[in-house]
User: Which sequence fits this backbone?
């Protein structure tokens, strides 16, 4: 997956941003509408309660003037039933009680809430809206006044402004709550439809004015580059896209103008890089040959080990680049022997323990010589120089690595180097016959050498012998 494939499109980003904005706007609208509707509903309910209280006050005053106050209970029951009032009580003030005596059973005494109303002389409304049957309790005071048609001071011997009593009623506001839900649902549905239209319109606009022109621009720009022709600005409607097209055409013209020069420079760089790589490979091989000559190794040893290693790398399944790399680095596997004194390196007989310790140091010497470079060939050569004397069972040197802890390059070079050393004459021994070499390799399977490499080598040993025969040693092969 390309990096651009994981990125959201302009359309997706725009729609997402717009949806977030519209959702926030819708929530704000719903919140404002809900608060306002609640306030209007509350005001309507309070006005209804005040209207009922005024009606009750007028009725009670009429009963008083007609001298039928003992019948006002029937009147209050009718008012409660006609107007869906859950409960209705009259709270008699102390001044009225002092003038007319205690009230009837439907007239209640004051409590904390009605006491607050008597003290403040203002209506008090308590809404219980968070239930299945929401209600409002309205306590509305009757204040003595001589204003208006109902002259309270004509019947009551009190001072103006005295609270004569209060109506304490409880109204069912379920219907208002239902109206509120209906209104909110209506607003929600309308908002959703409106948002849907906005999104559809925005989607269509983005498709028409952004996405399609952008896709067309990308396609046209690619074609313009490959065909070396300018993009036609007439196919784009917006000023921004026309500006982009002009910039693309200007860029393409610059690219085309310098294309031949870039090709030439690239060709020169490729040739120079190939020359550097070739020179490095030749230098590496030459260094291997120098070490071979100083060590008085058998003729073509470096060449054969290189070819053995490449052949084994192919058979074990390494990539073409790895096969090429091991072939380039193999000539330097014993480069560390440059640092070994001649009396030890060229000694025809068996080395003593101290001499052998010095000889073994060539692995570290070679690694130290090569490891400072960042070139792949020299890095691989440093690793091979360090590890080609390690053994599969961990008894090798210099690090005592074992099995897969030894790099595959080190395991391959180890087998190639030992095979050639056994099968070729050396200053300290004659060449071994093939039967003895094969027997030794079989015995060292899983001890000195990687078992898989031994199996592949012995299975196709004729191919390795063909390499030896193509690049033989000039000394006679003698049986030990």
Assistant:
């Amino acid at each position: 997956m390309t990096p651009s494939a994981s990125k959201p499109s302009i359309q997706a980003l725009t729609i997402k941003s717009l949806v977030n904005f519209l959702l926030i706007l819708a929530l704000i609208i719903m919140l404002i509408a809900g608060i306002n509707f609640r306030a209007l509903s509350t005001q309507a309910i309070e006005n209804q309660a005040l209207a009922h209280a005024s009606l009750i006050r007028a009725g009670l005053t009429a009963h008083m003037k007609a001298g039928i106050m003992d019948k006002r209970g029937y009147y209050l029951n009718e008012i409660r039933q006609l107007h869906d009032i859950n409960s209705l009580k009259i709270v008699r003030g102390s001044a009225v009680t002092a003038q007319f005596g205690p009230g009837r059973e439907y007239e209640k005494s004051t409590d904390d809430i009605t006491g607050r109303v008597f003290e403040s002389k203002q209506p008090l409304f308590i809404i219980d809206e968070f239930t299945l049957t929401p209600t409002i309790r309205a306590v509305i005071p009757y204040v003595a006044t001589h204003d208006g048609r109902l002259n309270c001071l004509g019947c009551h011997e009190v001072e103006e402004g005295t609270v004569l009593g209060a109506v304490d009623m409880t109204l069912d506001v379920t219907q208002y709550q239902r109206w509120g839900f209906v209104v909110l649902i209506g607003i929600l549905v309308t908002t959703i439809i409106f948002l849907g239209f906005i999104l559809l319109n925005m989607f269509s606009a983005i498709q028409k004015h952004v996405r399609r022109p952008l896709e067309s621009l990308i396609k046209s720009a690619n074609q313009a580059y490959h065909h070396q022709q300018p993009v036609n600005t007439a196919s784009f409607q917006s000023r921004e896209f026309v500006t982009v097209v002009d910039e693309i055409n200007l860029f393409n013209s610059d690219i085309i103008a310098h294309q031949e020069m870039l090709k030439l420079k690239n060709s020169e760089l490729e040739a120079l890089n190939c020359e550097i790589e070739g020179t490095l490979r030749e230098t590496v091989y030459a260094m291997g040959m120098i070490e071979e000559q100083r060590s008085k190794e058998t003729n073509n040893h470096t060449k054969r080990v290189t070819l053995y290693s490449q052949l084994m790398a192919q058979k074990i399944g390494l990539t073409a680049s790895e096969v090429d790399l091991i072939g380039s680095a193999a000539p330097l596997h014993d480069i560390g022997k440059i640092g070994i004194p001649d009396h030890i390196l060229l000694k025809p007989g068996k080395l003593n323990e101290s001499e052998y310790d010095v000889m073994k140091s060539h692995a570290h010497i070679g690694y130290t010589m090569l490891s400072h470079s960042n070139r792949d060939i020299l890095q691989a050569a440093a690793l091979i120089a360090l590890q080609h004397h390690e053994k599969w069972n961990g008894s090798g040197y210099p690090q005592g690595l074992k099995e897969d802890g030894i790099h595959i390059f080190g395991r391959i070079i180890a087998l190639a180097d030992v095979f050639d050393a056994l099968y070729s004459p050396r200053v300290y021994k004659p060449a071994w016959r093939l039967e003895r070499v094969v027997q030794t390799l079989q015995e060292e399977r899983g001890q000195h050498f990687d078992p898989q490499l031994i199996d592949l080598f012995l299975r196709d040993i004729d191919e390795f012998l063909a390499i030896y025969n193509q690049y033989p040693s000039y000394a006679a092969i003698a049986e030990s």
Observations:
- The radius of gyration is 53 Å.
- Confidence is low (pLDDT under 50) at residues 476-480.
- The beta strands are 85-92, 107-108, 124-128, 135-143, 163-172.
